[in-house]
Amino acid sequence: MSQLRSLAGALRSSSQWMRGHVGRRVFDPRRNCSSGAAEPSLAACSSSYVVEMYYAWLEDHKNVHESWDAYFRNAQASGSEATGEKRLSALLQGRAMSQTPAMSEKVVEDHLAVHTLIRAYQVRGHHVARLDPLGILTADLDSFVPSDLITSIDKLERVRMCPLLGSYGLEESDLDKSFQLPLTTFIGGNESTLPLREIIHRLETSYCGHTGVEFMFINNMEQCQWIRQKFETPGIMTFSDREKRTLLARLVRSTRFEDFLARKWSSEKRFGLEGCEVLIPALKMIIDKSSEAGVESVIMGMPHRGRLNVLANVVRKDLDQIFCQFDPKLEAADEGSGDVKYHLGMYHERINRETDKNITLSLMANPSHLEAVDPVVQGKTKAEQFYRGDTEGRRVMSILMHGDAAFAGQGVVYETFHLSELPSYTTHGTIHVVVNNQIGFTTDPRMARSSPYPTDVARVVNAPIFHVNADDPEAVMYVCKVAAEWRNTFNKDVVIDLVCYRRFGHNEMDEPMFTQPLMYKQIRKQEHVLKKYADKLISEGVVTLQEFEVCVSLYGNLITVSLCKVKICCFPDFFKPDGEPKSMSCPSTGLNEEVLRHIGEVASSVPLKDFAIHSGLSRILRGRADMVAKRTMDWALAEYVAFGSLLKDGIHVRLSGQDVERGTFSHRHHVLHDQEVDKRFCIPMNHLWLNQALYTVCNSSLSEYGVLGFELGFAMASPNALVCWEAQFGDFQNTAQCIIDQFISAGQAKWVRHNGIVLLLPHGMEGMGPEHSSARPERFLQMSKDDPDRYPVNFEVQQLYDCNWIVVNCSTPANYFHVLRRQILLPFRKPLIIFTPKSLLRLPEARSSFDEMITGTKFLRIIPDGGPASKHPEKVKRVIFCTGKVYYELAKERKRLKLEEDVAIVRLEQISPFPFDLIKAEVEKYSNAELIWCQEEHKNMGYYDYIRPRFLTVHSKNPIWYVGRDPAAAPATGNKFTHLAELKRFLDTAFNLEAFKGRSF
Q1: Bridge-based pairing state of the strands 910-912 and 152-153
Q2: pLDDT at position 30, please?
Q3: Would you state the pLDDT for residue 28?
Q4: Where is the Transketolase-like pyrimidine-binding domain (predicted)?
Q5: Helix intervals (H) in 491-577
């Protein structure tokens, strides 16, 4: 045992690696031991592992498993000559018991050094991999190049010398010595020992060739071992002759498609794939392997570069439809504005020829806003998985393609990654393919990102990253195969970094030599990947030159035939529209009182037995029960009843957003938490009916952009679902503005896709400061497409069908209930924007009777005055039109001033599309009154600029005057006193009947 102590002492003084490597972790005898037994087994464990354990045990006996603690204690016992001590001593001396202590120490240290060297390649080998097809750049921006991994290699790809072996305490003379391999490597194949020269050669082949693998940051040993096996096993990266011929044929299609477009329409922007033609066979390999594993539907998102090629050769859109988009004489589509050809998507179901299985491929349409489509794809994928009952993502998956600069620069990428493993948002693994041009438009990577690789953002979710030289098609195919297998095995994200180049500029009209002269001088010399690979296969005898030329010719003939079809007939390149509904009517949104009462009673109870709820929640539930008994509802209960009634009809309801389960204002409580049992919760709404649809309510990550995009994608999958996203405060929709502007507002016009997503935006001026007051209604109204100068012919349903979205600000729980139900009962889908209240959630006056919600009732686009003023309209001196919460403040002030007979207050509940017909009726009803528009928002915000021209269209001879806050830059004051002063000022103005006398419009 004294010899063991001397070895340990030598290791303590000479091996700094050991000290850093051991730390304070507890060693498990089952790790690195092939036996897997719980008892110590020296024969089953590597020598370095035993040394490491013994050294750790000497520092603190608790560092090792209790079985090893007992073993080392016995071996150290005074006078003990146990067999175990001899075996341990022999193992530590590296099969040389007769050697001197110094020689034994050298053997152990050399083995440890070799193990450290192996680990260095696994961790940092990607930094010296030959990834750049141009051979002029490194794929990463890391200023530190691991010189300890640089070796000299002869023409036979064998390690000739390693001058820097000294970094590990090894010498060149050690190259031909054999060393025991650790169990954390597969480079030996069936061999347990290898000469150092061969060890380095195999590590170079695995980690420093045309593939660089980042995975050692993953904190799961099983996953790391899986990846090691896929890249270290000798001879594993091989393909059959058939697979090589398939790859060549796919490269032909990818390359020749771009060549044809470049020749035929040389002056057209097409954002071609030249320089990364391998993307097409790469995607097809991923799809083939996924289909083989049982995937039936693949949903894809991508930027503009290469989209036409993906449509043609992956999704298999008819070539004549693609060529049609280049025809300048093509007429516009019947509906909407349309979009440029490299933004459009497609849905196609076909047979996968490699697996003979049906597969559905969807490429999502998206705007130029890079990466904005990422969460949308994830949401649609999640929805398809949900509706298919695919709880593990075995049948539906997503593939996201990215540009290198956008992947590193766009924050929505990070937001999307952080949704990847959240229970209500996970799609059970996405394959990310980064087309790494090594440039962003004209910006050098050194000016575009701070991280070494553009893919480093993926490390936050422990996604393995496979860097690969795009000019080595077989290496690309292999990493794509492994990525598909990883996703199928572990249901986690994975990233493929295709390091390539752009043969032309940002687009075909761009001149890249202005900004990247050296790079593009090299690119002009660069041989096309198709030629290089064809020459390789011809030299290997896999194909003949004649066979290659026939393959090229066949695809050329296909293009020629497709081009002839364009001259005969041309088709618009859009998703098929849903078509005009057969009926432009909407049934009553009211409910039978028994249904109202039943849902209200469930909302007031806890369906599970022995479930301890918070005392404060008990009071809330009792309050709900009291309301049901009195046939009234507040805002939260009305929402509950609306959702519950749709579930009864088989409509899936999904509510997502920050803190939506309880509600930001502690009003909703759709998820009850047991106060005594951790993680036990109850969703009463899923206990309403037998065979009801599922209610999904999920607190989201603290994200607006990513989560709203996700919910938009979810809503795309089925029209028979009510999908709602709630902003914590309405102001927060600002950070999701890209999704609102590009997808929700304009999506139908650009891509002819209807979507029924609902945005719930808490809005109202309550003195809570500029960031918790306004949901910016002026922005939504400005983007509404209804014409202010045209009086519509048809109203209600037809008017809703003609608009791009619906904007409402309900002032009663009943109207909120009706508009939610109307959203599903309409014969079509439109986005619905609801400015929801804050203070009205508990305002006693903001209650609705069952009578306003029973069968025969419906959503009220306006709520006329129902008081004394409406009895004698000819005597009314002023009509105040308003919307939302301000009504209650106006009504309170009118009552205080005793002006109920002189002033009528009309509530505009549906703001867009504007209810011209109902407003006209109110104006004519109060023919002797002056008209006022009163809002609590500032004059340059809110609704005034929207409603004013429309009132002129209704009645041009009767002007409408503005009452509210003065124009301002901030949406609200941050001072409570100032807020109250502003409120008093505009209320005084609203009821000052003398203020407008003698004024002309």
Answers
A1: unpaired
A2: 38
A3: 47
A4: 633-843
A5: 517-525, 529-540, 545-568
Angle between helices 83-92 and 47-59 (to 10 degrees): 110
How far apart CA 316 and CA 141 sit, in angstroms, is: 38
Quickly count: other Cβ atoms within 10 Å of residue 611's Cβ.
Answer: 16
Rounded CA-CA distance 554/102 in Å is: 71
Whose structure tokens read 């203020």? 995
Give the residue among 993, 1000, 893, 889 at the shortest CA–CA distance from 935: 889
Q: Which residues pair with 349 in a beta bridge?
A: 360
> Considering the chain, what is the average pLDDT of its residues?
86
Angle between helices 635-648 and 615-629 (to 10 degrees): 80
CB 253 within 8 A of CB 280: yes
Handedness of CA 97, 102, 105, 109 (dihedral sign): negative
Distances (CA, A) of 983 to 765, 883, 897, 935: 9, 15, 16, 10
Using DSSP's 3-state secondary structure scheme, residue 398 falls into strand
CA separation for the pair 21, 56 (Å, rounded): 10
**375 pLDDT above the threshold of 60:** yes
pLDDT over 70 percentage in the chain: 85
Task: Return the closest-CA partner of residue 529 out of 450, 452, 465, 472.
Answer: 472
Which structure tokens are listed for 455? 């893919």
Which phi-psi region, left, alpha or beta, contains residue 144 (left: φ > 0; alpha: ψ -120 to 50)?
A: beta
Helix (H, G, I), strand (E, B) or coil at 938: strand
- Token pair, residue 408, equals 């590193």
Q: Residue 647 pLDDT more than 70?
A: yes
| pLDDT value of residue 49 | 61
Q: What angle do CA 734, 737, 739 make, to 5 degrees?
A: 140
Buried-exposed string 895-931: b where 16+ CB fall within 10 A, e elsewhere: eeeebeebbbbbbbbbbbbbbbbbbeebbebbeebbb
Q: In what order do the strands lie in the sheet with 862-863?
A: 862-863, 903-908, 878-882, 930-938, 960-965
Beta strands in 727-766 (DSSP E): 758-762
Tokens, residue 283: 């995607």
* Between residues 137 and 729, the one the model is more confident about: 729
- The pLDDT tens digits for 455-491 are 999 999 999 999 999 999 999 999 999 999 999 999 9
Give the sign of the dihedral formed by CA 363, CA 367, CA 371, CA 372: negative
Half-sphere exposure of 479 (CA within 13 A, CB side): 32
Tokens for 720? 């028979």
Burial class (CB in 10 A: 0-12, 13-18, 19+), 407: buried
Sheet containing 465-469: order of strands:
211-214, 465-469, 494-499, 430-436, 396-403, 297-301, 357-363, 346-352
Is residue 775 within 8 A of residue 809, CB to CB? The reply is no
173 contacts: CB under 8 Å, gap ≥ 6: none
3-class SS of residue 856: coil
Measured CA to CA, the distance from residue 131 to residue 210 in angstroms comes to: 5
Greater model confidence, 998 or 614? 614
Strands (DSSP E) found in 662-815: 672-673, 681-682, 695-699, 721-726, 758-762, 806-808
Among the residue ranges 349-353, 748-752, 760-764, 995-999, the one predicted with the least confidence is: 995-999
Cα distance between residue 594 and residue 606, in whole Å? 20
**Residue at token pair 């930001």:** 664
Look up tokens 């409402």; give the residue.
808
| Residue indicated by tokens 């070799």 | 114
Which string of DSSP letters, residue by residue, matches 826-849?
Answer: SSS---EEEEE-SGGGT-TTS-EE
Instruction: Return d(Cα 358, Cα 351) in angstroms, integer.
Output: 5
Angle between helix 241-264 and helix 279-292 axes, rounded to 10 deg:
140
Strands 862-863 and 494-499: unpaired
Q: Which domains does the chain have, with CATH numbers?
A: 1-92 (no CATH), 100-209 (no CATH), 270-541 (3.40.50.970), 593-763+809-852 (3.40.50.12470), 869-990 (3.40.50.11610)
